[in-house]
Amino acid sequence: MRLGYLAAALGGIVLILLIAWFGSRTIGIEVLHAGWAIPANTIVHLFQLFLSACAWRLAVGDRSLSRRSFFRLRVIREGVNSLLPAAQIGGQLVAVRLMMKAGIRGAVAGAGTTLDITLEAAMQLVFTLAGIGVLAGFDTNHSWASWVGGGLITGAIGIVGFVVAQRAGLLRVIEWLALNLQRVWPALSVDSLRGLHRELMKLQRDWRTLARASAWHFISWSLGTAEVYLTMLALGVPVGMAAAFVIESLGMAARSAGFVVPGALGVQEGGFILACGLFGVPPEAAIALSMVKRLREILVGLPGLALWHWAELNRDRASERNGGMRNFPQRSQ
Fold first, then answer.
1. Residue 233, Ramachandran bin (φ over 0: left; ψ between -120 and 50: alpha; else beta)
2. Which of 29, 122, 264, 289 is least enclosed by beta carbons within 10 angstroms?
3. Confidence class for position 25, pLDDT limits 50, 70, 90
4. What spatial distance separates the first Cα and last Cα of the chain, rounded to whole Å?
5. Number of domains into which the chain is organized
6. Is residue 333 part of a domain?
């Protein structure tokens, strides 16, 4: 947790320096001018989260929770990962815990969420490749090729390595660690985590479901294009849909690369400065674009944290009343 706060502090310093360097007054005015785009962007993003929730539900393979329940869990994931010093992984852990409390076996919840993370990352890589393909059709300075290519290679190696580690028994290691922790803390319940590796291998064999979940994730990533298009229009620096597609794909790739920094503070802004610069968009407008996205994150993230708090309170009250009757999420009928 201390490392998370340190990373957040360093990212915040970088962000402040970028804003100061390119003109805080100018950026602030541009963000105010783009204010009308924030509600529209919020709607777009909520639809993205719904599609991601559908993909996650497919990856888990347990249909006992409704799409609406998975959507609420996805909003909680978003809030924790965006607004807390959790290094982009805390939201998934919170969601797995809530799924287990809702009656999904820990092995199924953990394996399915691991698979969902893998598919989402893989589809982001495909989205970034698509963005580069579109960018190649523009008459721009191709000096971007080296740093983008290096980032893609690194991302591909990371995803392949993660999959190989899963196949080699990464989740067995987690099971072993949990069992050893139980010896130190006997009160720790790990029975529901048994069979993590077996469940993951089972889920990975369902190619039809993997393809459907991947398609939902790719569409979700692509919808971010509308957010960039609307924001740039509101900023008075309109770009075409093709350029917006490229800016979103490269900007989100930069954000994901900075996953160790909570909220990718400073990293996201740097990514948008580079991506927007390819189309002649000034740095202050690129930072304003990032700020509008961050305001949208707050509008979505705060309700996510409130949902998490509400779920935990309801769970505790239900446990006191009737020994743990499940109140959230509701199972579908």
1. alpha
2. 29
3. confident
4. 39
5. 1
6. no
